[in-house]
């Protein structure tokens, strides 16, 4: 049966173009009439089966019911560019200044935004509409068939032709008129092939639920889930093959039936009535546990249908889902705290780093952050997560180098009850489970043992884990961001880091620049730290020059500590006397080197005298070396930290032994020991011995 279609646009030229495109697709199936808001023809529209209106026409209508009969089917025309038009623009040299000409500046802005979404990002567009005042006149103008508005003085004009109705618009019109078979005809396929398709339909539907045409796309996109779609009356109009397999009901039997009558366990009516997604529930369907939820499709507040998502759900997955839900409700879920806007700096090095990571964030590949200690690798890891598609899911971080192997394994993979002495009743999920559908940040990944490297590789390859002491395979969906202070290539060559794991983690490597290569960022960061502390001090020119030349071995973390130190001096103008001891250590070391070069015999005698007078033991030497290294970063360290660092140097010391060593070193003037949380610090005398 022949149907009638009214095509309404603001501009009569656009209306005629859209109508011709609709005629091209529907052929003899429909009588197509075109109307315009500008010429007033829309005030006398004939009764039609479907009213298709452009965005600018709908805006001009205000109250649509003044123009379109109440209860009539109506839809919005979404437009795009032809592939031919995009090809023409892609051939224009990068960086060319282009004047984009349209009927209104708002329409020009929307059109240029769409070009950016379709990949035309290499041109510098200036928007123009009648009445726009231009400071400079580009040589080239581009217009969607609005040449009559191109200002004088333009030497070259490219007419892209009117933007065309998107394939999704044609799909929606066909479904609304009952021409589902049209989607298989050669004319329709040729039309779809000629126009650019947006690649973000499914995301837009999930985020805003306002694109009816995405119902068709989702059937194609979701390959591992069953989909049953209903219209605004709850009648089934589509089922995919997986839905048939799960429900054991063929689509030929379901199409046209009321969804809730055929599938009594799917709450279609509730979803359509409440206009919101139903909570996931697990039901038994044809002997199997199935996870089901229904999501509405809203268009300007009106529910025009919905779709049910069905997925097979085994008992182990049900248990894991409950645990994750309970942990999130108790506030034990993890969230990323920072984004790229929190990264302070204007240097080219930091700006380029941010840009590349912003692009990498949208992928699912592992990211490897390489940088010295204190450069802000964890801040960048947070930022990558918050700029990714997983931003609303957990972000979990762990330092792999700060834990013994057995503890790190149970933290990452969890454990079952009775797996080891002290295991809590019922077991405990690991961080991979907590990070399900989110991001896991592995800091100092080079600290992983070979055995754990094997387990991590399996997770990356199979997306499966097994708890310590368990025998059940648990599926996890986790994106990995790793960080390292060391050159992993060297550890691979040494054989201490698996080559296959390295290439898995090194998919997207990024070098985080050290502070010394970031120029004036030192002062931007310093100002920010000073503001946070409420400080009012200023740097003398001497100190500014010193800070520019200083190596900053502890990077941003060291700078933060230095600002904290200077703030407590109470001086408004900072001079050398107001700097932390580490700056004086550098000066002293250089002076000592000069003395040694001038009189090496005296230096040798001094060292021999120190040792013969009862120099440090091996344990004392180790502690002094650790204290010297942390002093270079402007930090302090407590007994727990000393014990951990000593262990890394194969010096196993108990807390009691460390306390005795510190007492002995303090009595000889090599260290100063804080009785509170300040930790221990090496003195100038101690540094004199070390260097």
Topology, pairings included?
Layout: E1 3-9, H1 12-26, E2 30-36, E3 50-54, H2 55-61, E4 73-77, E5 79-80, H3 83-90, E6 97-101, H4 105-117, E7 124-128, E8 140-143, E9 156-159, E10 164-165, H5 167-176, H6 186-194, H7 201-208, H8 214-221, E11 226-231, E12 236-239, H9 241-247, H10 251-254, H11 259-262, H12 268-274, E13 281-285, E14 288-299, E15 302-312, H13 315-329, H14 348-361, E16 367-370, H15 377-386, E17 395-399, H16 405-413, H17 431-434, E18 439-443, H18 450-462, E19 464-465, E20 474-475, E21 479-484, H19 488-494, H20 499-505, E22 508-511, H21 521-533, E23 538-539, H22 541-549, H23 555-567, E24 573-574, H24 581-598, H25 600-612, H26 618-632, H27 639-648, H28 655-667, E25 671-673, E26 680-682, H29 684-690
Parallel strand pairs: 1-2, 1-3, 3-4, 6-7, 6-8, 8-9, 16-21, 16-22, 17-18, 18-21, 23-24
Antiparallel strand pairs: 5-10, 11-12, 11-15, 13-14, 14-15, 19-20, 25-26
Helix pairs in contact: 14-15, 21-23, 24-25
């Amino acid at each position: 049966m022949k149907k009638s279609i009214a095509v309404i646009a603001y501009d009569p030229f656009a209306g005629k173009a859209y109508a011709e495109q609709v005629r091209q697709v529907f052929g003899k199936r429909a009588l197509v009439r075109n109307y315009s808001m500008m010429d007033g023809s829309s005030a006398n529209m004939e009764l039609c089966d479907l009213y298709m209106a452009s965005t600018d026409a709908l805006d001009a209508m205000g109250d649509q019911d003044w123009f379109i009969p109440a209860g009539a089917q109506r839809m919005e025309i979404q437009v795009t560019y032809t592939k031919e038009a995009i090809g023409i623009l892609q051939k224009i040299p990068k960086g060319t200044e282009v004047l984009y000409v349209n009927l209104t500046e708002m329409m020009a802005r929307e059109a240029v935004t769409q070009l950016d979404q379709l990949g035309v990002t290499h041109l510098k567009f200036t928007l123009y509409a009648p009445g726009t005042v231009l400071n400079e006149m580009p040589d080239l103008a581009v217009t969607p068939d609005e040449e009559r508005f191109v200002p004088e003085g333009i030497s070259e004009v490219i007419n892209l032709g009117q933007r065309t109705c998107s394939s999704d618009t044609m799909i929606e019109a066909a479904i609304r008129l009952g021409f589902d078979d049209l989607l298989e005809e050669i004319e329709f396929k040729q039309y779809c092939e000629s126009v650019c398709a947006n690649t973000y339909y499914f995301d837009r539907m999930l985020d805003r639920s306002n694109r009816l045409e995405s119902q068709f796309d989702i059937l194609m996109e979701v390959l591992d889930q069953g989909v049953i779609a209903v219209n605004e009356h709850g009648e089934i109009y589509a089922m995919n093959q997986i839905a048939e397999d799960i429900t054991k009901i063929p689509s030929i039997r379901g199409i046209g039936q009321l969804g809730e009558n055929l599938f009594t366990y799917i709450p279609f009516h509730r979803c359509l009535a409440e206009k919101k997604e139903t909570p996931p529930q697990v039901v038994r369907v044809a002997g199997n546990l199935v996870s089901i939820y229904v999501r509405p499709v809203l268009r300007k507040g009106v529910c025009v249908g919905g779709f049910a998502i069905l997925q097979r759900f085994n008992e182990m997955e049900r248990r894991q889902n409950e645990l994750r839900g309970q942990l999130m409700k108790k506030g034990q879920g993890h969230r990323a705290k920072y984004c790229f806007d929190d990264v302070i700096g204007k240097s080219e090095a930091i700006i380029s780093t941010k840009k590349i990571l912003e692009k990498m964030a949208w992928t699912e590949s592992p990211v490897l952050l390489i940088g010295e200690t204190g450069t802000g690798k964890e801040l960048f890891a947070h930022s990558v997560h918050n700029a990714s598609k997983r931003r609303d899911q957990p972000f979990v971080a762990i330092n792999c180098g700060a834990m013994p192997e057995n503890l790190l394994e149970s933290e990452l993979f969890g454990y079952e009850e009775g797996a080891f002495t002290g295991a809590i009743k019922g077991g405990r999920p690991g961080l991979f489970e907590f990070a399900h559908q989110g991001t896991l940040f592995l800091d100092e990944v080079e600290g992983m043992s070979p055995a754990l490297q094997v387990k991590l590789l399996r997770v990356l390859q199979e997306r499966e884990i097994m708890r310590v002491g368990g025998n059940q395979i648990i599926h996890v969906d986790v994106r990995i961001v790793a960080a390292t202070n060391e050159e992993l290539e060297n550890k691979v060559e040494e054989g201490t880091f698996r080559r296959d794991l390295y290439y898995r983690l090194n998919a997207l490597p990024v070098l985080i620049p050290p502070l010394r290569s970031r120029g004036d960022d030192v002062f931007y960061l310093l100002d920010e730290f000073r503001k946070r502390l409420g400080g009012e001090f200023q740097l003398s020119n001497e100190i500014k020059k010193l800070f520019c030349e200083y190596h900053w071995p502890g990077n941003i973390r060291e700078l933060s500590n230095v600002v904290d130190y200077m703030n407590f001096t109470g001086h408004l103008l900072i001079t050398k006397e107001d700097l932390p001891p580490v700056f004086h250590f550098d000066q002293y070391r250089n002076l000592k080197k000069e003395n040694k070069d001038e009189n090496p015999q005296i230096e040798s005698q001094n060292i021999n005298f120190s040792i013969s007078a009862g120099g440090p033991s091996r344990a004392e030497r180790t502690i002094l070396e650790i204290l010297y290294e942390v002093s270079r970063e402007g930090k302090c360290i407590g007994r727990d930290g000393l014990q951990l660092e000593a262990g890394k140097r194969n010096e196993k010391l108990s807390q009691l032994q460390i306390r005795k060593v510190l007492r002995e070193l303090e009595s000889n003037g090599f260290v100063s020991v804080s009785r509170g949380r300040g930790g221990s610090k090496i003195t100038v005398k101690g540094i004199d011995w070390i260097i």
